[in-house]
Amino acid sequence: MRLYATVAAGGFRRHATYRVATAAGVFTNTVFGFILSYTYIALWDERPQLGGYSMDDALAYVWIGQALITVCGMMGGGFEDELIERIRTGDIAVDLYRPADLQAWWFSANLGRAAFQLLGRGVVPMAVGWLAFRFTLPAGPGSWLAFLVAVALGSTVSFAIWYVVAMSAFWLMDGQGAVQVAWLGGLFFSGMLLPLNVFPGALGEVARVLPWASLLQVPADVYLGKYEGWGLAGAYAFQCCWALVLFGAGRAVQAAATRKVVVQGG
Amino acid sequence: MVAGMWIRSTMTYRASFALTLVTSFCVTFFDFVVILLMFGQVEGLGGFAFAEVALLYGTAGTAFGIADLTMGSLQRMGKRVRDGSLDTFLMRPAPLLAQVAADKFALRRFGRVLQGLFVLIWGLVLLDVEWTPVKVLLLPVTVVCGAVIFAAVMVLGASALFWMQDAAEVTSSFTYGGNTLLGYPPTIFAQDLVRGVVYVVPLAFVNWLPALYVLGRPAPEGVPEWAAFASPLVAAVCCGVAGLAWRAGIRSYRSTGS
User: Fold this and answer.
1) Distance of CA B62 to the CA centre of its chain
2) What is the b/e burial string over A202-233, where b = at least 16 CB atoms within 10 angstroms of the residue's CB?
3) At B256, is the pLDDT very low, low, confident or very high (cuts 50, 70, 90)?
4) Is A194–B38 a contact, with Cβ atoms under 8 angstroms apart?
5) Does any CB of chain A come closer than 8 Å to the CB of residue B12?
6) What is the C-alpha separation between B109 and A103, in angstroms, rounded?
7) Count of alpha carbons within 13 Å of A217, Cβ hemisphere only?
8) Chain A residue whose CA is closest to B45
9) Helix ranges, chain A (H)
10) Is B184 on the interface with A (CB under 8 A)?
11) Could B23 and A184 be called an inter-chain contact, meaning their C-beta atoms sit closer than 8 Å?
12) Residue A42 is nearest to which of B30, B45, B168, comparing CB atoms?
């Protein structure tokens, strides 16, 4: 356990050194937050209460999305490129010899990364957005805590998705295609562009049960107080189920890959 | 030639290339699906009908797609400055900008151009406009000038990478962000934002001003009527500024010591 805690702390510190990149990211998230806010205002002006959200809820949704973009890895987990590169070059053989579990190792490092991103890239855009638009805030400390739990679970599901994607590189070598497909899913089905409960009919129903819903839609709804009591437990259960299923899948793919792994290079 | 090399290398993995081209088209198409979903809920956005928004989205998307296809690789340059591998390029007898632009040239980005054109044509078919020769001529000029303006912003952003190696994302907010912004009618944004886009970063010349003229709508408040035809001039000025910045960047480049 101590080993993984150290790895997580390392992940945190490593990303904390990229100060310029973090500032650049904060700037970009804020700009996109403004653009999206205005389009949502135009939309909710025409259709108040669309998807069960008030205007203030919809604006909160926009800024939660921008704050979580790197924490819950909607547009990329932030570690898969490195892992794929290690598989492609054969460095993965070194990792497999370490007296640590590969998946747990990367999960710990990613946990550290996500924790830093939440502080480094999440807080500032959210604060700027609130100053500019005065959107809905959670009812109290309890609601903030509930939100943070949902974010942690969302980040875990995101890791599990991207880990499976990265493992595909054992077979495909060039991971680009698989990454793009996962990216497409993350961007559209996480509700990054438009809340999933605004999606019409069957498309909406399917989108809301896919794993990507755990990344943004569920945390945002917890933040907005749409779940209470058993409903909240149900939302967490939904995220946990996907996390377990995808961790299992990642483990199975990893086992299959390491049984037949041929180290590249010499 | 460098681009040709990367195309050949991409074609080695044909299946992977086909997959990336299709997904590249889909990723950008899903972007437009969001607008479709919005119009499933409302009649108009900021007083603009679907066909008009499609025209805005199509012109911005095509222009951005062309710029991204030719100059999109510039974003990677920060890494090359940091690890010193830019030196290899400086040794070769070819302009640095051309080499960096062609670095890892990704033909799959053509998917974005296709998607932009697709929406543009869709919009034009639905659109009810009294076409005049000026308007017909203005449309292709808009797309070409728009691509040049986006490309100039990308070069400008890349020049900054000589000093701030990790700041590639700031450029994204102007390029990707600008592309998203210009896909919507200017009426939905705050006036200050619109003014910033006209006078500070001249992105509005990519499509807003010419497209508003084509649609027969008034220009945003405080912008003169003739601005609709100023895109070529603005594009030329942008290129000049970007060129100067790029040169200053190269002159300040110091390789890494390791």
Assistant:
1) 8
2) eeeeebbeebbbbbbbbbbbbbbbbbeeeebe
3) low
4) yes
5) no
6) 33
7) 27
8) A42
9) 2-16, 19-46, 55-68, 80-89, 92-97, 102-117, 123-133, 141-167, 169-172, 176-189, 201-209, 217-223, 230-259
10) yes
11) yes
12) B45
DSSP state of B106: -
Q: Is the pLDDT of residue A175 over 90?
A: no
At B152, the pLDDT band (50, 70, 90 cuts) reads very high
Closest CA relative to residue B5, chosen from B77, B94, B116, B78: B94
What mean pLDDT is predicted for residues B8-21?
69
Q: List, as one string, the DSSP characters of B148-176.
A: HHHHHHHHHHHHHHTT-TTTHHHHHHHHH
Tokens encoding A130: 């609130």
State the best of B76, B169, B171 to mutate against chain A, taking most chain A CBs within 10 Å: B169
- The ipTM of this complex is 0.84
Task: Give the pLDDT band of residue B17 (cuts 50, 70, 90).
Answer: confident
pLDDT tens, residue by residue, B22-54 = 777 777 788 888 888 888 888 888 889 999 999
Whether B183 and B60 have beta carbons less than 8 Å apart is answered as yes
Q: A27 to chain B: which residues are within 8 Å by CB?
A: 169-170, 173
The 3-class SS string of B232-256 reads: HHHHHHHHHHHHHHHHHHHHHCCCC
At B45 the three-state DSSP class reads strand
The pLDDT value recorded for residue B16 is 67
What tokens does B239 get?
């290129």
Give chain A positions within 8 Å (CB) of B177. 28, 31-32, 35
Judged by a CB distance cut-off of 8 A, whether residue B200 touches chain A is no
Task: Please count the residue pairs, one from chain A and one from chain B, whose beta carbons lie less than 8 angstroms apart.
Answer: 99
Interfacial residues of A (vs B; Cβ cutoff 8 Å): 18, 20-21, 23-25, 27-28, 31-32, 34-35, 38-39, 41-43, 46-47, 50, 172-174, 176-177, 180-181, 183-184, 187-188, 193-194, 198-200
- Residues from chain B that touch A177, judged by Cβ atoms under 8 A, are 15-16, 19-20, 23
pTM value? 0.88
pLDDT digits (tens, 9 = 90+) for A95-152: 888 888 889 999 999 999 999 999 988 999 999 999 999 899 998 899 999 999 999 9
Residue B48's DSSP bridge partners are B45
Categorize the per-residue pLDDT at A266 as very low, low, confident or very high, splitting at 50, 70 and 90.
Answer: very low
d(CA A125, CA A130): 8
Of A27, A188, A193, the CB nearest to B173: A27
